[in-house]
Specification:
17 strands; Rossmann fold; globular; 2 domains; Quinone Oxidoreductase, Chain A, domain 1; single chain
């Protein structure tokens, strides 16, 4: 079967691989849609932590069940599902405390093990989240939405908070969607005016701004004289992450969703004076997947305007380097694997 492999940074190749063989506790699924995310772009650029080559990318998946296997968990042939691509041990301290998203031996599909840029996959049945109402495009974006939903959970936002989301790429958009649902006062910062315009026109974000020397003053104006109580950085940019420490109000908190190779540094006196809380947000949990699907099914979350680029699996080696990587007009690309 045709499989697209990221052989090394900057180079995809097409290979023929055998179909997966049966395994206990797994279902055979046909991959129908693959979302392209920042992890894939980082891997292509050679900047993705926790990664090695060669690797089959693809962890944002909309799939169809071909064979539900020996422990079907209510799955039937033809069911459409989102894939929870985080394979955890179930026994480490994090797993025992209900945090399988940061398992000590976590393996992520398309990062640590080969992913979905291939027609057929074997997936543990408990990692498949079916929906009779969502289409394949929507299911492929559930994982992206889960990243944002978990970041908002980590932030513990309430309607009394004011929150700044930095970065309006796909992960930032997912954070924005769930931050809006909390009722918190929301502002969005990005270097791209087109992305800020998308936030205003498509997501109804009232307050948008660009980074720079006047950002803190602009945030105080938005906040009626106060800086945000929470700042969520979804850029994966070292300078942006370092600058984040200057933007929360005293007693505020920072959530880092973006991921970099390297260190984030900050002024300790500034950090202590403000008594800031800094949180990491990694992946999401099974409960978050179910919540995301329910929110999309109810119409509270609409991802249809996100998809700006679409292409076929066989065309990845040509189109990804030419049209996707480094293209600022790409908001969300989806690969059609049918």
């Amino acid at each position: 079967m045709l499989t697209i492999v990221l052989e090394k940074p900057g180079r995809f190749v097409a290979e023929e691989r055998p179909e997966p063989t049966p395994a206990p506790g797994t279902a055979l699924v046909r991959v129908r849609r693959i979302g392209v995310c920042g992890t894939d772009l980082g891997a292509f650029a050679g900047k993705q932590p926790f990664f090695n080559y060669p690797r089959v990318l693809g962890h944002e998946l909309g799939v169809e069940v071909v064979d539900p296997g020996d422990a079907p968990h209510g799955l039937r042939v033809g069911d459409r599902c989102a894939v929870e691509p985080y394979f955890n041990c179930g026994t480490c301290a994090a797993c025992r405390r209900g945090k399988p998203n940061c398992c000590e031996s976590l393996r992520v599909l398309g990062v640590h093990i080969d992913g979905g840029m291939t027609p057929l996959l074997r997936i543990p049945t408990h990692k498949l989240h079916k929906s009779d109402r969502l289409d394949l495009d929507q299911l492929a974006l559930v994982e992206t939405l889960g990243i944002g939903a978990h970041a908002v959970e980590r932030a513990a936002l309430t309607r009394d908070d004011s929150v700044l989301v930095i970065g309006a790429g796909p992960i930032g958009l997912s954070v924005i969607q769930f931050a809006k649902l909390t009722g918190a006062t929301l502002a969005v910062m990005d270097v791209s005016e087109s992305r800020l315009d998308f936030c205003r026109t498509q997501l109804g974000v009232a307050h948008t701004l660009t980074p720079g020397p006047g950002a803190a003053a602009a945030l105080k104006e938005i906040g009626g004289g106060s800086l945000p109580t929470c700042v969520i950085d979804a850029t994966g940019n070292p300078q942006s992450m370092a600058d984040t420490f200057n933007l929360p109000a005293n007693g505020g908190r920072i959530v880092f969703v973006g991921l970099i190779q390297g260190d984030v540094t900050f002024s300790d006196p500034n950090f202590h004076r403000r008594e800031l809380t800094v949180l990491a947000s990694r992946n999401s949990t099974p409960a978050t997947f179910r919540e995301v699907i329910a929110r999309v099914e109810s119409g509270e979350i609409d991802t249809r305007p996100w998809i700006t680029h679409r292409f076929a699996l066989a065309d990845v080696p040509e189109i990804f380097p030419r049209d996707i990587a480094g293209n600022p007009s790409v908001l969300k690309a989806v690969i059609d694997a049918e």
